[in-house]
């Protein structure tokens, strides 16, 4: 399997704030993936702390 996480960060925000937001997203989704079977086709939108969709994660076939 291949796990793909794609997040678009706002370039108008400081590097420190982007790093903090990305860290929060990684912690949240890192804890949340246990609720999925993690089979090809699984995935979900990823949201920032203001509940704006900023990306998505997905499980793909290894060939993918």
Q: Short summary of the structure?
A:
The protein is of the alpha+beta class.
For this entry, give a set of tags.
64 residues, alpha+beta
Could you explain the architecture of this structure?
By secondary structure, this protein is of the alpha+beta class. The chain has one domain (2-60). The chain is 28% helix and 30% strand. The protein contains 1 helix and 3 strands. The chain has one helix at 15-32, and strands at 2-7, 43-47, 53-60. Strand 2 (43-47) and strand 3 (53-60) form a beta hairpin. The radius of gyration is 13 Å and the shape is elongated. It starts with a strand and ends with a strand.
Helix-strand pattern: EHEE
Distance between the termini: 8 Å
Total beta strand runs: 3
Major beta sheet, strand line-up: 1-3-2
- Oligomeric state of this protein: single chain
State which percent range the strand residues make up.
Answer: 25-35%
Please count the helical segments: 1
Radius of gyration, CA atoms, in whole angstroms: 13 Å
The largest sheet, given as strand count, sense and whether it forms a barrel, is: 3 strands, antiparallel
Structural class: alpha+beta
Shape: elongated
């Amino acid at each position: 399997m291949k796990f793909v996480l794609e997040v678009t960060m706002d370039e108008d925000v400081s590097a420190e704030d982007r790093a903090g937001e990305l860290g929060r997203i990684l912690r949240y989704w890192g804890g949340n993936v246990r609720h999925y079977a993690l089979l090809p086709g699984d995935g979900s939108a990823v949201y920032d702390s203001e509940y704006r969709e900023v990306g998505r994660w997905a499980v793909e076939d290894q060939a993918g």
